[in-house]
Amino acid sequence: MTDTRPPSLSRLLTGPALVEAVQPWLRLPDGEPLPEPVRPGARVGRSDVSRIQATTAAFRLLDNEHGGALSRLAVVGQLQHVTHLAATATYTEETGRALFAAIAELASVAGWMTHDAGVHDDAQRYLLLGLRAAHQAGSDGTGIGGHLLNCLARQANHLGHAHDALDLVQAAQYGTRKLPPGRLRALLASLEARCHAVLGDIGGMERATAAAEHALMGEGDDPAPSWAAWFDTAEFHVTAGVCEFIAAECVPARSARAIDLITQGTAHRPAERVRSRAFDHIALARAHVRAGQTDAADTATTTALALMGEVHSTRVSDRLRELDTELAAAPAGTAAAGSRGRIRAALRPS
Questions:
Q1: What residues are paired with 43 via a beta bridge?
Q2: Local structure of 90: helix, strand or coil
Q3: Could you tell me the residue ranges of all domains in the chain?
Q4: Disulfide: which of 105, 284, 305, 322 matches 300 by Cβ 3.0-4.6 Å?
Q5: Measuring CA to CA, which residue among 175, 168, 213, 176 is closest to residue 192?
Q6: Quick one: how many helices (H) and strands (E) in the chain?
Q7: Phi and psi at residue 222, in whole multiples of 5°?
Q8: Residue 87 C-beta-side C-alpha neighbours within 13 Å
Q9: What pTM, to 2 d.p., does this model score?
Q10: pLDDT mean values, one per 10 residues, the chain (350 residues)
């Protein structure tokens, strides 16, 4: 809150420049040496890495429950601390790889919280920093590197750069191709399906959705990594429903399938995933509007607005504005007018 430094001069990368920025992670040679410390200082052990991981988990929980705006400066400060530590400390080979993997995971949380707060240039910069740390982690960084590319792709999708998002998710799929089936492969395929839907490729959307379901069902008994645990069956069903909602723009009959899938996912969404539940009900409301069910849309909108009051997220506000645009096209004399009034009151600066 007392940070008086000038705004970041970083610029949001798009197109070939963005794809080029992620290429080093895809060309990871075996046995690349760890960097030498700039000024050898403290010794870092596995217990230090464990503490970094525990702090990252705490920040992720705060992000899920309250949104990124409230805590992002704290996680950015933690990221600055551990990157400085990595540049000056000494460690064994095994600990060094684990340290860089932990930095990559922390950067994914910092980048995602910053994206959620609407500071997109800096968010991308943190995610790319995390990708470089994943590169330095060697094989330990393969999975988290795929997740960081997933975050970059989701950011690109949110900003309307669907072609960039598809390039990024396909790069992530290539880079993680040797990992066993599981949540990472499922979440990447699910995101690929959404990219295809946005680009109007319904066949590609259906194939990728089927691949996501197959990968999720093929997950082994080992616990999912902390950065992938969010992609569960609830997330899969909601994402598949959103894909159907997007496809309904061309084939209106698909709205019914969208409503069924989103409702199914929402029913199993963990209570602590407050922001995700807000997104669920906004998507459900939009699907109801597209199906001509304005009363049901009004009910979903009411729930979304109540959940919005518990989080600080510019992305939730952005999605509510999209819902408002959908409602504007609804017939006069329906519940849409009341829904729009409450949305605009919620978005009005206090």
A1: 90
A2: strand
A3: 13-179
A4: 284
A5: 168
A6: 15, 0
A7: -65, 140
A8: 7
A9: 0.92
A10: 45 93 79 73 91 95 87 93 90 93 96 94 96 92 95 96 97 92 93 97 97 89 85 96 95 95 96 94 96 96 93 92 94 90 86
